[in-house]
Write a structure and sequence with these properties.
This protein has seven helices and seven strands; from the N terminus they run E-E-H-H-H-H-E-E-E-H-E-E-H-H. The chain starts with a strand and ends with a helix. Strand 5, helix 5 and strand 6 form a beta-alpha-beta unit. 23% of the residues are buried. It is of the alpha+beta class and 211 residues long. The protein has a single domain, classed as Lambda Exonuclease, Chain A, CATH 3.90.320. The protein is 36% helix and 22% strand. Helix 1 runs antiparallel to helix 5 and helix 5 packs across helix 6.
Amino acid sequence: MKIEMNNCKLIEPVINEEFVFITPSEVIEYLYCPRFIYYMKVLNIHQHEQRRKLVNKGRDIHNLKLVLNKEYLRNRIGVVDKQQEVYLTSRKMHLVGKVDEVLFLKDGKAAPLDYKFAFWDERIYKTLKIQQTLYALMIEENYDQVVEKAYLVYVRSKNKLVELEVTDKLKTEAKKIIRDMFEVIELNYFPKSTKVKSKCNDCTYRNLCGI
C-alpha cells in the first residue's frame, strides 16, 4: 500500500472489504511487537491472555470504574453531553473498538475519555497516544465532529485527569500503523520481532518465534 499526496492531503487507501476488522487493543499489541498481528490475523493463533498476570489483574479491577464519581471530572473539561461504553466502527480503516466515554464539549468538538487502572508517571506512552488517536478518528467518522483532544483518567493516582492533544501528526501516524498492519495481513508477511527482547519474557507466542 502506498501513500499518495495531493496538495499535502493524505489520500486514504482502499482496504479489501473481505478483511477482518482490527481493534485498538490489537494495534497496541502490534506496537509492542509487530509479530502479534501475524500470529493473530494470518495464522489465526489467538493469545491465551489468562496466562498473562497483568491482563488478569486488569480485568479483575476493570469494574472499579463503575463506582467512581465521574461528574466532577467532566465539569472540569467543559462537557455538555456524553455517551458511555460506546462501541465504534470505522469502515474506512476497518477498525472496531469500545471507548469508555464519548464527550461532547462546549466548543462544539468531541473527545474520547478512557479510564486506566494505572499510576500517572508524568508521561503518556506512545501506545496510549495511538490508542486514543484511533478512538478520535472513529468518533470523527461516526459523529461527524472534530476531535482535537482526548482524556485519560489514571485511577491509581487519585483519578488524575490528563489531557492529550490529538494532532494531525498523530492522526497521520495512527493511519500509517493501520496500513502497515494490513500489509502484514494482505501479504502474509512475517515481520521482524521487537528489538526489546525483554518483552519476549511475557509473550504468549515466545515458543513460536524461537527467540
